[in-house]
Amino acid sequence: MLKSFEVENFRGFQSRLKLDMKAGRYDFNPEVESHGLVKNAIVYGPNGIGKSALGLALFDIILHLTDKRPFEPRQLLPYRNLNRSSDDVCFKYVFVIDGDEIAYEYRKSDPISLLWERLEVNGERLLECDYAKPQTPFVKRGLVDNLNTRLTDGKLSFIKYIYRNTPTNTVPAVTKLVSFCENMLWYRCLSDGNEFAGHEAMPSLLVDMLRRNGRLQDFTEFLGQFGLNYKLGFEQVNNQNVLYAYFKDGQKALFDTVASTGTKALYLFYCWGVSAFSNTSLLFIDEFDAFLHYEASGALVKTLNRQTHFQTILTTHNTSLLSNELSRPDCSFVMSRQKDMAGEAIKIANLANLTEREIRKVHNLEKMYRAGAFA
To answer: Which of 13, 35, 50 is closest to 315 using CA atoms?
Structure first.
């Protein structure tokens, strides 16, 4: 699980921003935490604060450690903060995986060019490489004695190089780290299409994801929970699977043509659920409920809370989710602008750390938030 994440000089994050996923002490909704860490986080904040940029930054790690689908280049422009365009972009992750605390830190000049990286496990440095001097990386003695560790530049991560060129678990921390990253999934639903990064190497059609998993009847029942009653079926058109909706008197239409934008968002969530959630490590859904009724949003949050084997981070503007029935103060995060020595800085903190008041289950978090209790 992700324990903490830090980023600096990436897009709108001129100063260092830190996301701390340490759980608080609450005796309700235990399903939203795991082993002392937040398992299900929801991030709030005004337009333009950087909620989407947070997801892009958090998933930067997949660009150089995995061969999974990357972000589109346009999504990462500008990469550096324009007020510090000559400085490095800095990232630091701390994971807890199978009892080990794995800290991975690196600097880049652009999305594919590493300048420096370091890996520590339980406070002990294992690997470090300065790509200004790639011929002399630090490797803990005895770790990879028979491997040529002379790299030529920062286009290939030293961590990924070891992972790809040594037997599995030669360096357990490297295997754990890269395996976790390979199963990270970021996606969002837009009115003009869907986007995703991580987890898969190539995109699949939603209809193929649904058919491949044999879940058409279950999907129909899933939609029915939201009052969406369809009779659905697959047909072959030009050797491709097509999902149809059937109506009275033999009438039919392509499901995509009759489904609302909100229904399509539910369709996307369901398809990722049946095809990826079983082996996902970290799920980030940007503006996950932009097209959903607040009751549907709450239902999806409950669905994700019931998942036990992966972490989720959702971004939203829907303050009705600020509820102790769905989440907790330590799992609800707010992004805001503050002043620091460099000027204006963007910060993120959970509600529990934004007030000196003791928050109990009976408190109305949405009302408190709207009243400025967490300023």
So the answer is: 50
